[in-house]
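Lab notebook, bench 4. The sequencing result for the construct came back, and we need a structural model before the next group meeting so we can plan mutations. Quick request posted to the team channel:

Model the 3D structure of this chain.
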Amino acid sequence: MGKYCSIILTVFFSLVLLSCCASADEKHTVDVSGRAVNSTPLYGPEGIVIAPSGDIFIGNHDGKIMQVAADGSVKAFADLNDLPGDREETIRAVGVAMDKEGDIYAATYDFHDGAVLKVIGPGRENARTVTLYRHGIGLANFVLIDDETGTMYVTDCSMRSGGVFGIDMKDESRIGSAVDREKELLGKFGYANGLALGPSKQWLYVAETTAGRISRIHLKTKKSETFIELGGWMDGLVLDPERNALFACDNKKGRIIAVDLSCTVLGEVHLIGREGQCAPACLVFRDSDTIVFTDLWKASTWRALLGMGQYHSYIYQLPVSEVIR
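Done. Here's the predicted structure in C-alpha cell form:
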C-alpha cells in the first residue's frame, strides 16, 4: 500500500509541477476587440500620428490619409494619389509622421524608387495638398521627425540592401530630390522598419523586422550594434521617456513588448482583436498611460507586395498597465 501511495504522490506532485511550469509559460493575452478606436474599418492601416487636437491620422495602404475623430468617426483627410503628374502605379501610404507645424509626411515604397510625400496639415492654408518631399529611398517605410534638430529619419525596408537615412529638413534646397546615399545614409540593415530616438538623442533605435531584433545607431559615429533580440517580426517602435523604455510591435506573434534601455524586458502582451490575433504595426502614446496601435492583421505589407487582396482592419487602445504588469 505504501508503494502505491508513493507512486500516487509522485504522480500528483509531478502534475502540480507541470501545471506550474505551464502557468509560468502561459502567454499574457488581452482581448482588445471591444477597444477599437475607429467606428468603421480601415484599409490596411499602418502609420499613425496623433495631432495636438487629439485627432488620429492613419496611413492607409490605398494611399489615403485617414482622420479618426474623438467619437471614432472616420473620414479621408487626403489622398497621396492626388500628387500632381501622370503615373500608372497606385501610391500607397506606409509610415507617417507629423512635424511641429502640423504637416504630415508619408512614406511610400512603390513610387519614385521609394519616396516621402508631404501633405499640408489640417487647418493650414492649402490643407490636403500633396507634394513630393524626397525620393530614391528604396522601400521607404517608417518616418520619424525630430523637430528639435530638424531631422527626418526614414527607413528603407529592403531585405538585403535596406538602411536608415537622416535628412536635414532645414536644407530646403533638397526638397523634391533624391536622397544622397553617401551623405544621408546612416547605416545599413536588413528590413529596417520602426525607429525611435533615445532620450539623449545619442542613439537611434531600429527595428529589423525579419531578424526579430532591435539594433541601434550611434548618431555621431554612425556605428551600429545589436540592442536586443526579441524574436518575431519587429515593426513599430516608440520611446516612453517617462519609463525610459522602448515599446515595440511584433506583428508575427501579435505582441507589444516593453524593454528598458538596459535591455531588460519589462513586459509583453499578446493581443486578440476583431479579426483574431492582432498584427501590431505602429504605435503612439495618447497619454503617458495609454497606447494606440494599428493592427495589420490580414492587411500586411507582405500581401501588398505579393499583389494579394487587402482586408480591412482597426486601430486599438491599450493601457500601458496591460504590457507592464
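Residues 28-322 form a domain with the Neuraminidase fold (CATH 2.120.10.30).
Will bring this to the meeting.
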